[in-house]
Amino acid sequence: MWSDNESPVDLLRFRYIAEAVRDLVHQKDLLPVTIGVFGDWGSGKSTVMRMVKAELNRPDFLVLEFNGWLFEDYEDAKSALLGSILDEIGARTKDQAGPVRDLLARLKGFVRRIDVGKGLGLLARAGLPLALGLPQLSLLALSGELQKAIQEGLESLKQDPQKAFETLGGLIKPEDASEVRNTIRCFRNDFGQLLAEAGITQLVVLIDDLDRCLPSTIIETLEAIKLFLFVPNSAFVIGADEDLIRYAVRQVYRDLDADGREVGRDYLEKLIQIPVAIPPLSRAENHAYINLLFAQKRLAPEDFGKVLESVQAFVANDLQTLSFDLARAREIFADAPHKVTQELVGDLALSGQIAKVALPGLEGSPRRTKRFLNSLLLRSALAKARGLELKMDVLAKLMSLEYIRPVYFKQLATLQASQEGRAKELAAAEAEVRGTDAAQQDSGATGEGKAIPSGRGQPRSRVETPQTDADLARPDTESEWLVDSWMRVWLAADPPLTGEDLRPYFFIAHDRIGALETLPNPLSPKALAVFQNLISEKDLLSRRGLEAAKKLSEGDLAAVVQAFSEKIRQASGKEAQHLVRVWVKLAEARPVLIHQALALLASVPHETVALSIPVSVSYLAKQFPEHRSIIEQQLRIWAESKKNNLANSAREQLARLQKVN
Question: Which residue range or ranges hold the KAP NTPase domain (predicted)?
Fold first, then answer.
């Protein structure tokens, strides 16, 4: 298993990014400067920030790390950042007297002014209820000095209420514009002088995990940074997801955003002077990363150090060449071949199989990669504890389906459960894609109803057998798999699953995560923002969610689909009808979801299907004729519904589609 935190070693070969940031900070003519290290959730930003700190390790530099997420629930983010900087300078200059102490005292007074001003503002709004003996304002989240000030004010209310309110009212009296400007100017002047007196040639503040915070906290932190934009010899390096920061700006400044302005983009461009992008890992880089994770687990630290040296020195003109694989491992340990153990050889072989089927869904994300591998090893360990024998390559292939196409995973789970672990639909689909009659090799797929391979990716003829209600309630599973390009790659990838008894693999998933529940596919902050907009009852937000969904990566899209489908299953009444409408629009926005969308629609109660849904689904058939067969099949199901209005609507749409022919 591997930690989900940032790595202390550079497995991603991102040192060149950290060195680029270091060089920017060292350029005196750029200071003061704000640098944005931008990347998607789980892309390795925190690892890069850690490397940047190491690159800036100089005695005349003050490098401070600030994590806004840690302070989110305790105090004002603005005063927390300013206070952290001053506390660090104070600790560094604790033996100095004179000007340093005076400057620190003045600057800390400025921070207290922000803190107390905000807190007393809250007190003023709550003053009347407090005076009337109603529940008091909680003081737990306020700073010590602010707690003391408010507590004294509360006690004085009992003795001399008029005087207490006059005193507190004076403290929270707003400053006019000229006072604010003078205060900020004095702060910047004093801070610049403090750095000079303390012997600090450069202040560098590394702000990480900002995109995990609430929008209000993000904006407060960014507003605090603005105080330093004209302070000499200062640099702020912000690690965040650029889209999430823009989203936070839009949430806080909704009025401006509603006017059609690109307020999120404009705000960032004014604050972040130099953006540095962290690219997603290429498939070759992601494959090599998985290899390195396994090597880290199998090799002694000193031996793994040799591997890292080789990887850092690796240069290749062909971007598809792996920086580390079995051949390179044997080259590194040519003088000690026993160090390339059979366990490591097996792990690297498994890595190759994972790369074929899982990498598209992992989208070059180091965090998703580690979580997938951790889940894989955990499932394997749980199986052993239950006395089940699982093949790691089969488990990895099934889990990639579970992660990237959760709806198809559930379909396969249902099919294999009713066929003693061997689904004839899977055997026929593999035969079609692989070009062999694998279905005949499946001892568990004999008898009536077996699929007969025909044209590639087209619905095939069958020997008709009596259909159950479950058969009528779902589309032609095999056909919908074959028109999905990713699914065809999955079906063609080794190992083939035809003939494998899949029951133990689904049992271990069922045993730990509920009946046929899918592998937890956590929503990244970006995916969470899209999901929240999609399920909103406000049309503006749901439309915004649909637009953002068009740009989601494969992995984020799979996570949103999983969360959305579960939300629909749990909903009822008008909420369910609204979600179903958005679900169909999502399929229109991302056509790759059409078959998954129809599979879910086949399972929802007809009461939650509004009369407009058959019209929308029929429109999909006109837009995407390659999906027409599966769409007509769903319309036929609704045409037989006991909900007369729905049945009539579906029949009308079927008739219109037939006229088009």
Answer: 17-381
